[in-house]
Design goal:
Elements lengths: L10 H4 L7 H22 L1 H11 L13 H9 L3 H35 L2 H5 L1 H12 L30 H10 L4 H10 L1 E6 L9 H26 L6 H18 L11 H34 L11 E5 L13 H29 L11 H13 L1 H11 L3 H24 L1 H4 L15 H17 L5 H13 L5 E7 H15 L11 H13 L13 H20 L6 E5 L4 H13 L3 E2 L4 E2 L2 E6 L2 H15 L2 H8 L23 E7 L1 H7 L1 H22 L2 E7 L11 H6 L9 E6 L4 H5 L2 H20 L8 H22 L5 H8 L2 H4 L23 H10 L10 H11 L1 H14 L1 H16 L2 H11 L5 H26 L9 H37 L8 H19 L4
Helix pairs in contact: 2-3, 2-5, 2-11, 5-10, 5-30, 5-40, 5-41, 8-12, 10-11, 12-13, 12-19, 12-30, 13-16, 13-19, 13-22, 14-15, 14-16, 15-16, 18-19, 20-22, 20-23, 21-23, 24-27, 26-27, 27-31, 31-35, 35-36, 35-39, 36-37, 37-39, 38-39, 38-40, 40-41
Length: about 1000
């Protein structure tokens, strides 16, 4: 059985591989052969033959074939459950192995690109010519030309990308005569924050992630062994065989490992999953990003100053996002902060131990400044036990002695942190305690490191290992990642409703007040020093938890500093009162001082639905018109008399006059469709940026992107360049969803490449805006198209009475809710089975599984066709011009194209045919016909605009990757439908009290959930 064909008869399939991918194809073939061998050894030839038969249901393009569909379907229905589950597991493992190989060679190519010389580019045609012969089977030997240059697949170097790297960006800016001062001003403001989230479905176990990393490491060593073998003129070697054998062992061990979570993960499990990437990759990699920028900048603009090391940093929602997740309690958030500090201190301890080996300087051969000797004397007095233990050993090695004191203080800091993480021992510890034998904050630790650096520099030395640690401390501090708090707006209004009612403060319930009445009451309460919340708290559990959340936020800031958490996001922000409610609750916790008008939190409204996006301008304008809110942004009132000074001392948030605003891609897409959602977000950014300029407030947009296109996902570089001109200005914040973390951050070079492309895009978009966003006739046309798209989308999703039944029947939405992959419930409110209560993540996940991918394209075809129908020739020319010149329009069309390439209507129709009840089929067939018509129309419109014959013809690498996966997902789709059908029949008989099944419900559910895992791995995204 071969999923990857290599013989001459398969020319069409072979054509999807470009010359630069020969090594990738070589490795894919090796891994597939090993995978097949493992299956034969573990399950026998029977399973391999079974998978080969399943593969016959797929066309060369990766779509489901119509002819064998019915026969394959009937044949699968008769499969024993054990064989079905083994087939599912085998295919899921195959996808995971493909992903690893592709990621590994993406990383390899990034390394090669950085070392590519001009000479290599000149010789590109010669390389291609020789590679062509190799593909055709003319030779398998090492290829060396007359000049001795090696052109084998190990030696080839792909051409550098046209953009996306610092070394491309700064020469490009110089060529455009960009004023250096303008570049410097932007670099001084550069603020890029990437926020890890957990609520998207992370379907891969931690255990499996570790196996993936081990396989990638083996592949890297295999590359080296084969290159060494080739250099010696050999065809094979012991080392190469050894690593192939290890690869085989890892695949076999993986086969015997359970892919599914054994329990529903807790929030702290999710914290562990997210922080895994910091521990394994990001902690050591991120400083290199700053070094790359410095080197690239100074090679072109030697007089410009690089931004702070922390120009790009990380945040996290994991453990702080409580919107709809009852398991994120104040105690869990506290534990999360302690967990993060523990991890980062452990990493510093490892680094200090390594640094001790490096800084072995002796007083016999190196001078030491008096400042270092004075600090050693101070440490001796405060920590005599360390001095007595190590003085004899390090009496002539002052740097090692200083590092020993530093190590001990870090150990003491960690011990205190562990005591704080325990609810029992925490009671005896005073927060923010000052102790000379530990580090109360990262700045004290940094001061000690810089003292060592100063001594080295003053004596003519430099230590890169020390510089690296300093970079890490400046970026990560003792907090690692900044925790964002998030809660739904209704929780705050409900809490104030109960508080006001308990105190008898209003004539009618707070929730029944008009918006104007609410605003006036809130402003009045924000101006008074009088407490609002009695002690002890006599309220309901929900209101008490809301109040305690603000208290724990204050406690975290006291203990960890403002950097641990200073952002509070309000989901479903509709009005000004939603923001003022949070400020009032913050006042009660000591996070806002009404006397000086200062706050230690930034309140971030999240505008999610299309209606909210349209209302965002008026809400923010009304807020900016309030003196107390403007003072809050500015860090307090300009003049406060001495007698009115507050006893409450609040640290200052910097920078001042910064308003962060979050725009939601997920719910706006679910509400209005892909085209309309993206256009409304685009428009909102423009008006909010102008509003900020009017009031002298810096606007920082927080993009709530998902992993899938239906939730705003896609290549970050193109997405950032597609943002409206003058809306970034060096500041951006983006969610990095749990489902895409592995593809972006599992390998060091891939992580750095992702961070560099994002950083490059932010600088590029800030300095080189296209200007096309401000052409009013273009905006009018886009508005017209977006309105038509929204109407077509909502006519199907919200106006068709049969649609909700269709969705629940022909997708695995109910089974997804049983998958042990997230601590968060699938629905915002239990008991309801409607689209409005369903979260955007399972909504998109379900359509992806059944190969409809509906949310990412439906309505686009109708909207474009309606526009073209008015003036076919002229309007087509115009849309093609938009595609060539307008980054926003090209981004939208490209995302739709990529999604359409993953749609498989033959497979989708199979879900409808097999999972719909007989009495529903007639009405469901009408809906499917409507969806299919829109799909073909959307595809036709996209290909007309980009002038390609097939989807993704303009991106062969992506086309190859999508086709490779599509073809192998087809068997999984058949298996999923079969297992879902059996599972639902079981549930139906169980309800009727009649069970005539050979298998238990748990066995059937396990099989269905395995298919969900497998298809998610094959599609490379979930929701």
């Amino acid at each position: 059985m071969t999923f990857i064909k290599t013989n001459h008869k398969e020319e069409e399939e072979l054509s999807i591989y470009s010359n630069s991918e020969l090594l990738l194809r070589h490795r894919l073939k090796l891994v597939e052969n090993l995978w097949e061998l493992v299956l034969t050894n573990e399950c026998g030839q029977h399973l391999v033959d079974l998978l080969d038969q399943l593969k016959s249901a797929c066309s060369p393009e990766g779509q489901t074939s119509e002819t064998p569909k019915q026969s394959v379907s009937k044949w699968i229905e008769q499969l024993e459950l054990d064989d079905a589950i083994k087939s599912v597991r085998a295919l899921a493992l195959y996808f995971q192995l493909i992903n690893i190989v592709e990621q590994h060679y993406e990383q390899r190519n990034q390394k090669i690109i950085r070392s590519t010389t001009t000479e290599d580019q000149v010789n590109g045609n010669k390389i291609d010519s020789v590679i062509d012969k190799l593909i055709e089977g003319e030779t398998q030997k090492v290829l060396v030309d007359s000049e001795g240059k090696d052109y084998s697949y190990f030696a080839q170097k792909p051409n550098p990308a046209s953009g996306g790297t610092f070394h491309w960006l700064f020469p490009h800016l110089q060529q455009l005569n960009m004023p250096p001062q303008k570049i410097q001003d932007l670099l001084d403001e550069l603020d890029i924050r990437l926020v890890f989230t957990a609520h998207p479905t992370e379907i891969v176990r931690h255990t499996i992630r570790k196996k993936q990393r081990r396989i990638s490491q083996i592949l890297e060593r295999l590359d080296g062994a084969e290159e060494s073998c080739r250099a010696m003129g050999l065809t094979n070697s012991y080392e190469a065989e050894h690593f192939r054998s290890r690869l085989m062992d890892e695949i076999q061990l993986w086969w015997r490992t359970d892919e599914l979570h054994q329990f529903k993960p807790t929030v702290l499990d999710e914290v562990d999953y997210a922080l895994h990437y910091f521990q394994e990759v990001l902690f050591d990699s991120l400083p290199h990003l700053s070094k790359r920028l410095q080197q690239a900048l100074h090679s072109t603009f030697p007089k410009l100053k690089a931004p702070s090391h922390k120009f790009c940093y990380f945040g996290s929602w994991v453990g702080g996002d409580r919107d709809g997740n009852p398991f994120v309690t104040p105690e869990v958030t506290w534990s999360t902060a302690c967990y993060q500090r523990n991890l980062v201190i452990d990493k510093y301890l490892e680094s200090i131990v390594k640094l001790n080996d490096v800084l072995s300087l002796s007083l016999h051969w190196s001078n030491v400044l008096p400042e270092l000797l004075d600090s050693l004397e101070t440490d001796r007095i405060k920590m005599p036990d360390v001095y007595d233990k190590l003085y004899v050993r390090y009496r002539q090695e002052p740097y090692r002695l200083k590092l020993a004191f530093i190590e001990k203080k870090l150990q003491n800091t960690k011990a205190r942190n562990e005591a704080l993480s325990n609810p029992e021992t925490r009671k005896s510890i005073k927060l923010a305690t000052r102790d000379d034998n530990l580090y109360p904050n990262a700045s004290d630790f940094l001061e000690d490191l810089k003292l060592i650096k100063l001594n080295l520099e003053q004596t003519g030395l430099n230590c890169q290992e020390l510089d690296h640690i300093i970079f890490q401390v400046e970026i990560y501090g003792f907090h690692l990642a900044e925790l964002d708090f998030r809660q739904d707006s209704s929780r705050h209004s409900d809490a104030l409703n109960e508080i006001a009612q308990y105190l008898g403060m209003l004539d009618k319930p707070y929730n029944e007040l008009s918006e104007e009445e609410k605003t006036q009451w809130l402003i009045g309460e924000l101006k008074t020093r009088r407490p609002l919340v009695p002690n002890p708290i006599p309220f309901s559990e929900t209101t008490t938890e809301t109040i305690e959340t603000f208290k724990i936020l204050r406690s975290l800031q006291v203990e960890f500093g403002l950097e641990i958490c200073n952002t509070y996001i309000i989901s479903m922000t509709n009005y000004v009162s939603d923001v003022l409610e949070v400020l009032l609750l913050a006042k009660e916790a000591g996070l806002y001082d009404p006397v000086i008008g200062a706050s230690t939190i930034r309140i971030v409204p999240l505008f999610e639905t299309v209606e909210d996006l349209k209302r965002s301008y008026s809400v923010m304008k009304e807020l900016f018109d309030l003196p107390l809110y403007r003072a809050c942004l500015a860090g307090g009132y300009e003049e406060v008399s001495t007698e009115n000074q507050s006893n409450l001392v609040l640290p200052k948030l910097t920078p001042h006059n910064l308003q962060e605003i979050m725009l939601g891609y997920s719910d706006s897409n679910k509400d209005s469709g892909f085209m309309s959602s993206n256009w409304e977000i685009h428009k909102a950014q423009k008006v909010l940026a102008k509003l900020g300029n009017t009031y002298g407030v810096k606007i920082k947009i927080f993009h709530g992107r998902g992993g899938s296109v239906g939730r705003g996902g896609g290549p970050a570089y193109a997405a950032i360049l597609a943002q409206p001109t003058s809306t970034i200005n060096g500041r951006i914040k983006i969610t990095e969803q749990g489902e895409v973390l592995a593809s972006k951050y599992s390998l060091p070079e891939l992580a750095l490449y992702n961070l560099e492309t994002i950083s490059t895009a932010v600088i590029q978009a800030s300095l080189l805006g296209s200007g096309f966003d401000d052409i009013e006739p273009w905006n009018d046309i886009m508005e017209e198209i977006a309105i038509a798209s929204r109407k077509a989308y909502r006519d199907l999703i919200y106006e068709q009475p049969d649609f909700i039944d269709f969705f629940l029947s022909v997708t695995p939405i109910e089974e997804i809710s049983k998958l042990q992959i997230s601590s968060r419930p699938a629905r915002r409110k239990t008991g309801k089975k409607d689209i409005s209560s369903l979260r955007a993540i399972p909504w998109v996940f379900s359509w992806t599984q059944s190969r409809f991918l509906l949310p990412a394209w439906y309505g686009v075809g109708t909207a474009l066709q309606e526009f073209l129908a008015k003036e076919p020739e002229e309007n087509l020319k115009l849309l093609r011009y938009f595609y060539l010149k307008w980054p926003f329009f090209k981004m939208v069309i490209s995302k739709v194209e990529m999604t359409l390439s993953k749609v498989d209507l033959q497979m989708a129709s199979h879900y409808v045919e097999e999972l719909a009840k007989d009495e529903d089929k007639e009405r469901f067939h009408k809906l499917f016909s409507q969806i299919a018509k829109e799909y073909y129309l959307s595809r036709e419109m996209v290909l007309k605009i980009n002038q390609q014959e097939r989807l993704l013809d303009n991106d062969p690498e992506l086309q190859r990757s999508v086709q490779l996966r599509n073809g192998s997902i087809v068997p999984l789709g058949f298996l999923q439908v079969s297992l879902l059908k059996r599972l639902r029949q079981y549930a139906s008989q169980d309800k009727a009290g009649l069970i005539h099944f050979r298998y238990s419900k748990d066995e059937l559910l396990r099989g269905a959930l395995l298919t969900i895992n497998g298809i998610a791995a094959g599609m490379r995204n979930t929701g």
